[in-house]
Amino acid sequence: MGVRILYNSDTWDAGTITSSSETGDLVDDNVVNDLVAKPWRATGDAAEWIKFDLGGATDITCIGLFGGNWTSAATITLEGHATDSFGSPTYSQVLTVETDEDSVVMGNIVLFLSEQFRWWRITFADGANPDGYIEVGRIKAGEFYEPARSYSEGWNFIPVDPSEGDEKPGVVAIWRTRAQFRQVAVRFRFMTETQFKKFWTIYRKVGRRVPIILALKPTAEPTLYSIYCTFRGQLPLANQLVDWYQATHLVFEEKVE
User: Fold this and answer.
1) Are the C-beta atoms of 56 and 134 separated by less than 8 Å?
2) What average pLDDT does the chain have?
3) Residue 53 near residue 28, CB atoms below 8 Å
4) What is the pLDDT of residues 162-192, one digit of tens each?
5) 203 alpha carbon, distance to own chain's centre
6) Nearest CA to 42 among 30, 57, 34, 32?
7) How far apart, in whole angstroms, are the C-alpha atoms of residue 135 and residue 234?
């Protein structure tokens, strides 16, 4: 399996959203705002849910949750059903909460699936959460695009620390800590004209402004190697040979706030 890109979540974002609870202006509609730092926050943590009515049966092949505050003990379940009745949903999948090599919980979850429902619900059971509430920054879902020809060997995966400090030799600086993020650089070579046009179509829709989900290893480690990101810079498309094209250097920058 190659790279997967979720760039169009228009139907999901236009759905009617309800939830078990909200806190102040941290309402459930915030999860379809591209700003991760503008979350939905529930009042509790033991039995919370957020629900989406898409207005009609809709194919969902990728969903991503970003900016979550769940713990490793959380049980997060994605459910899909034809009607607004979740006593026994047709689709139910417990989402995997990932941790890093130091057992620190990752606040993102990405899942690939193949389901079609009008109604979707995500439930959260995390009664040991020290915050005392559930919070999620962005929930993005829709149908992913998988290019016929994936990225070339040798992609770059770059963690970035944008913290600011007055560094001097031999002195520990006083830092203004900022959230770390990742950059990914990939190349696509020997693309068909069809793939060339699709990349152009994606860029016309999202430009450098609208975040996408980019999954580098969608079947092996979808959460670790997927980022909620934007194009950093322009889209360098070129004709390589007769009827063959390339995207010479695509850089994507993760959005964590």
Assistant:
1) no
2) 93
3) no
4) 999 888 888 888 999 999 999 998 888 787 8
5) 18
6) 30
7) 33
Query: What is the signed CA dihedral for 21, 76, 51, 8, rounded to 10 degrees?
Result: 130
Beta strands in the chain (DSSP E): 4-6, 16-19, 40-41, 48-66, 75-81, 91-95, 109-125, 135-136, 138-142, 156-160, 164-165, 175-176, 181-191, 212-215, 226-231, 237-241, 244-254
Residue 251 in contact with residue 183, Cβ under 8 Å? yes
Beta-sheet pairing, 91-95 with 75-81: antiparallel
CA gap 95, 223 in Å, rounded: 10
Domain with CATH 2.60.120.260 in the chain: 8-142
- Whether 176 contacts 163, CB under 8 Å: yes
Please enumerate, as own/partner, the contacts of 216-219 that have beta carbons within 8 Å and a separation of 24 or more: 216/3, 216/151, 216/155, 216/157, 216/184, 216/186, 218/1, 218/3, 218/4, 218/112, 218/144, 218/146, 219/1, 219/112
Between 224 and 167, where is the model more confident?
224
Class of domain 8-142: mainly beta
CA 179/CA 154 separation, integer angstroms: 27
Taking the complete model, does pTM exceed 0.90, yes or no? Answer: yes
Answer for the pair 104, 18: CB distance below 8 angstroms, yes or no: no
| HSE-CB for 86 with a 13 A CA cutoff | 19
